[in-house]
Amino acid sequence: MLHTATQEIFNYWNGLRGSRPAPLRSEIDPSALRRFLPHLFIVNSTVSDRPTFALAGTRICELFDRELRGLDYTFMWLGGQDDEPTTILNHVLFYERPALLDIRLSHDEQDYAHDLLLMPIRSQGYQSDRVLGALVPRETPLPFTALPVRGLAFESWGFVKPDGTRPTISADSNVSTAMPITFFRRLVGQKTAQPGR
């Protein structure tokens, strides 16, 4: 983890789930994450549709100068990059493992590095169907004069281990071939049909 806020958010989620792969949505207490609420979002995922925003914090909405609720998750990514981030989000849901993405926003030839933390959560007890996300600047926040942004630029990512460390996979790696979305949807349908897991 490269930012204290990212580590704190991860620690909260990790402690909440205990020995389970993911916590329930109903267990998340917004007051426990009060300081970070502007940087948090929740994405819903279904077998038939692409992931969409269920809610997004004020800072994230400010970045794009609009309310994100109800919009496709691909909306916040730069054109041509949205397939890889969506596939990573699907990995988070299927494998029920958190992931950390290295994100870059640019303005006036200056880069602003951000952490994008994705953590699986469940609306019921059998399979993660939502992702709790956090978009946190690592050092200097993007100035308001640079808003709205055109989109997030994805650089690298990795699943996060319980101790908060992660291996890195470059954006040049073809992560989308690891598990095509259609295959993911078929497997999710099989997995959710087995409530005894």
Order of helices and strands: HEEHHEEEEEH
Round the mean pLDDT to the nearest integer and report it. 82
| Second-tier CATH architecture | 2-Layer Sandwich
Give the termini distance in whole angstroms: 31 Å
Global structural class: alpha+beta
Largest sheet: 7 strands, antiparallel
- Categorize the overall geometry: globular
**Can you count the helices?**
4
CATH superfamily: PAS domain
Q: Strand order within the widest sheet?
A: 2-1-5-4-3-6-7
**Percentage beta strand:** 15-25%
Low-confidence runs (pLDDT<50, min 5 residues)?
170-197
Question: Could you give a quick summary of the protein structure above?
Answer:
With about 200 residues, the protein is an alpha+beta fold. It has four helices and seven strands.
Describe the structure.
The protein is α+β, with helices and mostly antiparallel strands. The chain has one domain (4-180): 2-Layer Sandwich (Beta-Lactamase), CATH 3.30.450. It contains four helices and seven strands. It has helices spanning 4-17, 58-64, 83-95, 181-192; strands spanning 40-44, 52-56, 99-107, 110-121, 130-137, 153-159, 169-170. Strands 2-1-5-4-3-6-7 form a seven-stranded antiparallel sheet. A hairpin with an 8-residue loop joins strand 4 (110-121) and strand 5 (130-137). Helix 3 packs parallel to helix 4 (181-192). The longest helix is centred in the first third of the chain and has 14 residues, at 4-17. Mean pLDDT is 82; it is low at 170-197. This is PAS domain-containing protein. Pfam families: PAS_5 (PF07310).
